[in-house]
Amino acid sequence: MTAWIVLPVSLSAFSITGIWIVYAMAVMNHHVCPVENWTYNVTCSKETAKRGFPKTCCAPQDIPLISKCGCYPPESCLFSLIGNVGAFMVVMVCILRYAQVIEHSHQCWVNTSAMVSGCINALGLVMVGNFQSVRQSSALKVDHARTLHYVGAGVAFPAGLMFVCLQCVLTYRIAETALDYWMAHMRVGLSAGALVSLILSGIFFIHESFVLQHAAAICEWVFTILILVYYGTFTYEFGTVNNDTMMAALVRHIPHNRPGSGGIVGGISKGVAMGCSARSLKSPVGSSTSTHLNSTPESVAMI
Fold first, then answer.
1. How many degrees, rounded to 5, is the angle at CA 227 between CA 252 and CA 175?
2. Cα 193-199-205 angle, rounded to 5 deg
3. CA–CA separation, 219 vs 223, rounded Å?
4. Tens of pLDDT along 121-133?
5. Per-residue b or e along 207-240, where b marks 16 or more CB atoms closer than 10 Å to that residue's CB
């Protein structure tokens, strides 16, 4: 067991706790309405509720979307911090998972695509966290921050969904024990829930009904929490991460034409590149062959 086992759990705990704190701050500061409120008015008169208590009159702009909860200070500062730190941790998880799958000799386009989609998800989180969607008082003023915020959200949500779906495929491919398959089944359930909630959120959001837009906000919260819980499940595999895990990824990308490494590294890379089921990095046969080649320089020269 290594210290990397803490990374996925920290990502989930930090992000989920953080966004709920941001939500609570936004509600108490009258920047959004609570999620249990389903009644909205077209306009509201002067707010009569005291600071520290939820709003008594809610308008459409008070729908508690995650991004709206982090629009205004002081909660916007914490929202940016969560976005930046969370994005960094997502990248770390993606890189370690990519190397771990290679270590199991399952390098293929699915693994590479999963890492790329995870990094794109992190980029979207940075954009969402640092460019808040603040309402402008002037209709003629172009809100570039809001545009970047929506672009980031449009990138982060689909990329995050693609990452978890591809990881489901990889989990099944490298599963060996009954517990591995149980984890794969659980991840499929989380991915299915995230897919349904994202689709419903998009469908509800485009309607003018305030009730449906509120439902879209709830679906957005459900999607985000499911994705973060999914990231936390990598704790199950990260207990075996060590220095050899990163070395496996580095060896995979060593150029094949280096002196003294063409026969062995080139053979490994070709075997892995053939498909996801190649078993050459940790194969006992490969180790004995490597030892034999090292002990017979003449054989190396002939190869």
1. 45
2. 125
3. 6
4. 999 999 999 987 7
5. eeebeebbbbbbbbbbbbbbbbbbbbbbbbbbee
- Do residues 159 and 115 touch, judged by C-beta distance below 8 A? no
Collapsing DSSP to helix, strand or coil, 47 comes out as: coil
- What is the pTM assigned to this prediction? 0.81
Are 166 and 117 in contact by the 8 Å Cβ rule? The answer is yes
- How many Å apart are CA 49 and CA 35, to the nearest integer? 17
pLDDT digits (tens, 9 = 90+) for 45-71: 766 666 667 887 888 889 999 989 988
Question: Quick check: 272 pLDDT over 50?
Answer: no
As a whole number of angstroms, the distance between CA 126 and CA 132 comes to 11
Give percent helix, percent strand, percent coil of the chain, each to the nearest 5. Answer: 70, 0, 30
What whole-number distance in Å separates Cα of residue 250 and Cα of residue 234?
Answer: 21
Rounded Cα distance, 80 and 71, in Å? 10
What are the tokens at 168? 């489901």
Residue in this structure with the two tokens 């701050």, named with its chain if needed: 25
DSSP 174-205: H--SHHHHHHHHHHHHHHHHHHHHHHHHHHHH
Helix (H) or strand (E) holding 9: helix 6-28
Helix, strand or coil, per DSSP, at residue 65: coil
Q: CB neighbours of 120 closer than 8 A, spacing ≥ 6?
A: 155, 156, 159
